[in-house]
Design goal:
Its main location: secreted. This protein is mainly beta and about 1250 residues long. It is built from 13 helices and 82 strands. A hairpin with a 2-residue loop joins strand 40 and strand 41.
């Protein structure tokens, strides 16, 4: 029994709990709630349920807002603001009622509540346009145990939540409610009628939904039996629809009907003279007649599993060849007029007649050629026409088999064959302006397709001139001391005509190539005089343009073929284009190839008759505008042959480098070698396998072909190599070339650093006629146990295994197609000033794609591709691999060569200067530009390395070059000169050239026929240089002034001037020399009379001539007229007509490209020989003139000293000298023609004039 005190406490507590609980949500409430609409459910779910267990307290009612405006908002934050002490910090429940005492759940209104935010009702959410009621709220709080004297300190806890109940909704695609509960428990016993207090609700509800309604078909039942045994019948099959609701249906039909029935037996009507039809009546059988045959490759290797059929019934295969290439067909009805069709993968189909061996036996012997993909031999050419004229575009392709289908495209759209009735030729009649645009053809054969280059047709409307008569602006640079009055401009507009073609003659409009081309050219030139202030310069400017006959200069490719390891020349090597031998390399490996005008792709094969070098196929780039492009060709020496036994299995390793594992293996099964006759070779084989290892970057230039392939659509795409190898198998006794049957190629995947390349790796062979790589086979992965180099244990490796046959082609490649491509913008300049007006054209830019180490580290270890491009008037865009995720995933090594001379790259040390490199920050830092001497100043400065980070289109700093996306080639080619680009420059001394008739040596089509043209013949350019030796402590500027000498049209008139600073001889102190260009003597452009140019050689400063080459002096005396050389500060001569050599100090070179001619002549002049080449000045050999240029000593007072000692007399003397100097300048102005750049000539003349007039004054001063 409890005592009285305990009983009173229990009753008090019970009364408090009863009052605090308020309205309790029981099952009746839930039942009533389920009967309400969705809004009523929303109202219930938005309220917090009161705490039903434990001792709690309710606050008073609060109403701080009214339902006007947007609704009623009873925010807990606002309630606390107005009633700070009346609401606990963590309420456990909340109750809301209207001011009419209606519970929120019974109002039918959409309300919201949260124990953290409070209660609110929004007017626009209410149905039927209703507004929210006026609510007041109260909160349930646990008692403050610090102030409760009747409370017990009880530790409580919640039990685990029960499982969610099943969803109240039962229909499919419906919404219901799920409920789960928990209990509040105490760790201690509580007095009677007391419940433990836990924070939080004891029940939770959530919305649930049933699965969507579905209707699914069952599998089809089997077909029923056919309604007819033969002839036309029917059969059916059914399926059942299973659905979860009657409101939906299955899509489709439950029943299918199909035609059926075998053909009813009919009598075979096939006529078989001398035989009978086959069982299926598809062919004839002649009993007793046999066809035997053999099928070999062109190398004599038996062709296994080739199909044999009659050409008239190509789909009916009658036999297959066995391992020896033999086949036999019994009962073949054939005669000597019958044709047999033989087919085999990777071989061209062959059709040939049978041969009667006897009455009942027929024989056939077939030799299959390897199939080759199509290749364009004749590309369509550009045409210019007037509206209403016609034009013919031609396209011709070759291949094995020969292409039999041609398709033409206009601006990427297929041309209607029915309308134009084209094949190899597309004829367009009655041309309209809308037919202008780009045209190309696509040739297709059984082996693939190929697209031609693009031809442009330009159609001018009638009355529209094709050539604008007004010349374009063309600025030429003037000497630095030439200041035009009023402008002080260093440039003069000489004008030029635009480089566009004009419509041709109608006599040739239906030919593939227009017989006579017309271009916009110079019609008239005006002679003008440039006023330079103190002197004048003659010049001829273009005044009018019109359509003229096009000038077609010769296009040449020159170079030198040397070994890739030690630069040993390929002497007297054979040069082939296709099957035709076109020339031979020289003793030093030099070669020259003239490119035909219609050539689009120049493929050349260098063959060593002595078999010391492997056959090397090169695809050369050339300048279509004319001139010669120099290529430094590297070839690999053949690997020394090893002896292998043909009857055994043999393994040859690919890529053996010290302390490195081989990249792959060549596995040759036993008895795989064959002679040309098809006989199996069983003796000793001399095997030479030469591997081009991509881990050695010095071998990149020796890569054959241009690493491109043609896809199924005919587009030329790039490859990325993992190694190339050349095979040479010969009979050990008579050196006969042997073929090999199935050979395995194994590639170690450890050397493939980009794992995404492994699935697409393929084996390729090079077509020697086209220079294009063609697919041989795919690779399959295989696990193998090997012993690695430098390892003590065996390990598992994954190899890629490919199969091939060694037939006609002997050069193979381990390549993968790569589609992450970009373009790199590069420009070349005349000097390190990088002036936009001094860009160099015709420079060969080479880019080597490098592969990083594993993990895309920035330190490259292997190269993957080699590309070359020639710079034009706006630089060059080089294709390269790039990556948009990691900047250093691909890197590039870039060089530039002009006429055999390597150009220097922009420096990256001691500080990376964006203004010098040509790329702005921060993109420059991302590309990590480094010149080749970045870490070692002793290295050459002729290359740079960059990361090939694909530009981010969303980053403005990366949208202005120098890396462009692959689809933005036009943007790269037309990029302005101030856009980001990489730079090369020539290392030259101070140099200046001036021509009276302007001419761009980089564009031979800018040549103008004029008597004063420096180069009289655009087909042949003759460069002449004279070597001048200087004794003196300083380098000296030397000028040649070139005038007409003996020709009546040019006598006394200026051709041009040339200035060059002498170059220091590193082996001789106080000695330098200059290789000075002068105007060669010879025929002028009219080819009628020889002009011996009048040459004046004038060194700058205090120079005196002290020597003339005796042989040169003797030659000039023997070829009058002889000029007097009374002045020792200069030298005058009538230029020799004969090409004198280094013994005379004269260097003459003739070439189809003026720059190449000048580069060769300068190299010989520096070397002092007639056939050598040097970039280091050798002043002690091959000299024509010698001058002494000592430093001028100061032997009188300076002006400042004179003003201090005798100012009055000095000022008087200065005034008199100024008056005399002005008078002297006027008298000499009429004869002075040109001046030195940098103002040297003007200063030297002023000093001479001042000195001459000062002598009397000086003597007077002394007498005084």
């Amino acid at each position: 029994m409890w005592d009285f005190t305990s009983m009173m406490l229990a009753l008090s507590t019970f009364s408090v709990v009863s009052l605090a609980q308020g309205p309790i949500w029981d099952s009746s409430h839930l039942q009533r709630l389920n009967q309400t609409d969705s809004n009523r459910k929303l109202a219930y779910n938005s309220l917090m349920e009161p705490q039903t267990t434990g001792v709690t307290e309710w606050t008073s009612w609060f109403n701080i807002d009214h339902p006007g405006g947007n609704g009623d908002y009873e925010r807990l934050e606002a309630i606390r603001f107005y009633y700070r002490e009346r609401v606990c910090s963590r309420p456990v429940a909340m109750e809301a009622r209207t001011t009419d005492w209606v519970a929120a759940a019974e109002t039918g209104e959409v309300v919201h509540s949260s124990l953290e935010k409070g209660f609110w009702c929004i007017n626009k959410e209410q149905p039927y346009g209703r507004s929210c009621s006026n609510y007041h709220v109260r909160f349930q709080c646990p008692p403050d145990q610090r102030e409760c004297v009747f409370c017990f300190k009880v530790h409580t806890y919640w039990t685990e939540w029960s499982q969610w109940t099943s969803c109240s909704a039962t229909a499919c695609n419906d919404v219901g409610i799920q409920v789960r509960q928990r209990k509040c428990m105490s760790t201690q016993p509580l007095p009677f009628l007391l419940s433990p207090i836990c924070v939080g609700p004891h029940i939770e509800r959530r919305e649930c939904s049933t699965p969507p309604c579905q209707a699914i078909w069952s599998y089809w039942a089997p077909w029923s039996a056919c309604s007819r045994t033969c002839g036309k019948g029917r059969r059916t099959r059914r399926r059942t629809c299973y659905r979860s609701s009657t409101k939906i249906r299955c899509a489709g039909r439950p029943l299918e009907v199909q035609k059926c029935g075998n053909p009813c037996p009919v009598k075979c009507k096939r006529a078989c003279p001398g035989g009978h039809p086959s069982k299926d009546c598809s062919y004839c059988i002649c009993d007793g007649q046999v066809l035997r045959g053999g099928v070999l490759s062109i190398r004599g290797v038996p062709v296994e599993n080739a199909t044999v059929a009659l050409a008239s019934q190509a789909k009916i295969i009658r036999a297959h060849t066995d391992v020896k290439g033999h086949f036999k067909i019994d009962g073949l009805c054939a005669n000597s007029h019958s044709l047999i069709l033989i087919r085999k993968d990777k071989f061209a189909p062959l059709t040939l007649p049978v041969t009667n061996k006897s009455t009942d036996e027929l024989w056939i012997r077939a030799v299959l050629q390897s199939s080759e993909k199509p290749y364009i031999e004749k590309h369509p050419e550009d045409k210019v026409r007037y509206e209403g004229q016609r034009a013919t575009l031609c396209c011709r392709a070759t291949g094995t088999p020969k292409p039999d289908k041609y398709h033409w495209y206009h601006n990427g759209t297929l041309v209607n064959r029915t309308l134009y009735k084209y094949d190899e030729e597309l004829t367009l009649r009655d041309l309209k302006p809308e037919q202008s645009g780009e045209y190309h053809c696509k040739a297709t054969s059984l082996t693939g397709s190929i697209k031609s280059t693009t031809a442009i047709i330009s159609v001018f409307t009638k009355g529209t001139p094709a050539c604008n008569s007004t010349p374009e602006v063309h600025l030429i640079k003037l000497p630095l001391d030439c200041k035009q009055p009023g402008t002080d401009s260093k440039f003069y507009n000489a004008g030029r005509c635009p480089h566009n073609k004009c419509p041709g003659s109608l006599d040739f409009d239906m030919r593939c190539r227009d017989g006579l081309g017309y271009c916009c050219g110079v019609k008239e030139m005006d002679a003008r005089t440039i006023n330079c202030g103190r002197y004048t310069l003659p010049i001829k400017v273009v005044s009018e343009c019109s359509c003229q006959t096009c000038l077609e200069p010769k296009v040449l490719v020159r170079g030198r073929v040397v070994s890739a390891d030690n630069e040993e020349p390929l002497r007297f090597g054979h040069i082939y284009m296709g099957k035709e031998r076109i020339g031979t390399t020289g003793y030093q490996g030099g070669f020259t190839i003239q490119v035909l005008p219609e050539t689009q792709r120049l493929v050349v094969n260098f063959v060593d008759p002595s078999q010391r070098f492997i056959d090397t196929i090169k695809v050369f780039i050339f300048d279509k505008r004319g001139g010669a492009v120099y290529h430094d060709v590297r070839v690999m020496k053949k690997q020394e042959p090893i002896d292998i036994n043909a009857a055994q299995s043999n393994t040859i390793y690919l890529g053996e480098i010290k302390d490195e594992d081989p990249i792959g293996q060549l596995v040759i099964p036993p008895n795989s070698f064959h002679k040309n006759t098809g006989e199996v070779y069983e003796g000793t084989v001399k095997a030479s396998v030469t591997f081009l290892d991509p881990r050695n970057i010095t071998m990149a230039a020796a890569a054959p072909g241009d690493l491109n392939f043609v896809d199924d659509e005919g587009d030329t795409l790039p490859l990325r190599t993992y190694g190339m190898f050349s095979v040479d198998f010969r009979d050990g006794e008579n050196q006969e070339v042997l073929g090999a049957g199935p050979v395995q190629v194994l590639l170690d995947t450890e050397h493939v650093k980009m794992q995404e390349h492994i699935p697409s790796m393929k084996l390729w062979s090079l077509n020697p006629d086209t220079g294009i790589w063609e697919e041989e086979s795919n690779f399959q992965p295989k696990q193998s146990t090997v012993v690695g180099t430098g390892r003590n244990k065996r390990e598992e490796r994954t190899f890629l295994i490919g199969n091939m046959e060694i037939r006609e082609r002997r050069l193979f490649n381990l390549d993968v197609p790569e589609n992450r491509r970009c373009y790199v913008k590069v420009r070349a300049y005349m000097s390190d000033k990088f002036l936009p007006t001094e860009q160099l054209e015709g420079v060969v830019i080479n880019l080597i794609n490098l592969e990083p180490k594993s993990g895309y580290a920035s330190n490259p270890r292997a190269w993957g591709r080699f590309d070359s491009v020639i710079t034009g008037p706006n630089g060059a865009c080089l294709p390269a691999f790039c990556d948009g995720q990691r900047p250093d995933a691909y890197t590039a090594y870039v060089t530039a060569i002009m006429g055999g001379e390597e150009l220097d790259a922009a420096p990256s040390m001691p500080k990376m200067n964006p203004n010098i490199i040509g790329v702005s920050q921060p993109y420059l830092g991302k590309l990590d530009y480094q010149r080749s001497d970045h870490e070692d100043p002793a290295l050459k400065k002729t290359a740079f390395r960059i990361n090939l980070a694909k530009p981010n289109a969303n980053n403005f700093d990366e949208t202005n070059g120098p890396i462009y996306p692959f689809k933005s080639l036009i943007a790269c080619e037309k990029a302005p000169v101030d856009a980001n680009h990489f730079r090369f420059f020539r290392v030259e001394k101070d140099k200046y050239e001036y021509n009276v008739v302007p001419f761009q040596e980089s564009d031979l089509t800018s040549w103008t026929g004029d008597y004063l043209s420096w180069w009289p013949n655009p087909q042949e350019f003759r460069a002449c240089y004279i070597k001048v030796k200087i004794h003196g402590a300083k380098e000296v500027m030397v000028r040649s002034r070139n005038l007409g000498g003996t020709h009546p049209q040019t006598k006394g008139q200026l051709y041009g001037i040339r200035d060059i600073r002498s170059t220091r001889d590193l082996n001789h102190a106080n000695t330098s020399a200059a290789c000075l260009e002068f105007k060669c003597s010879g025929m002028l452009f009219d080819q009628s009379v020889v002009d011996r140019s009048l040459i004046s050689v004038i060194p700058q400063g205090n120079c005196r001539r002290i020597g003339i080459n005796s042989l040169l002096e003797e030659y000039l005396n023997k070829h009058p007229p002889v000029l007097q050389n009374n002045e020792t500060h200069a030298f005058n001569m009538l230029a020799p007509v004969d090409p004198l050599g280094h013994n005379y100090g004269i260097y003459t070179v003739t070439d189809q490209n003026p720059r190449v001619a000048k580069e060769i002549a300068i190299g010989r002049c520096f070397d002092g020989t007639s056939d050598g080449f040097s970039r280091e000045m050798k002043s002690d050999s091959g000299v024509a003139l010698t001058f002494s240029c000592p430093k001028r000593t100061v032997n009188r007072e300076s002006l400042f000293q004179r003003l201090q000692t005798n100012p009055g007399l000095t000022l008087t003397q200065m005034a008199r000298e100024m008056r005399e100097s002005q008078g002297l300048q006027v008298t000499r102005g009429s004869t002075q023609m040109v001046a030195y750049p940098f103002g040297q000539q003007g200063r030297s003349q002023s000093r001479r004039a001042t000195k001459t007039n000062r002598r009397p004054a000086s003597r007077t001063q002394q007498r005084q």
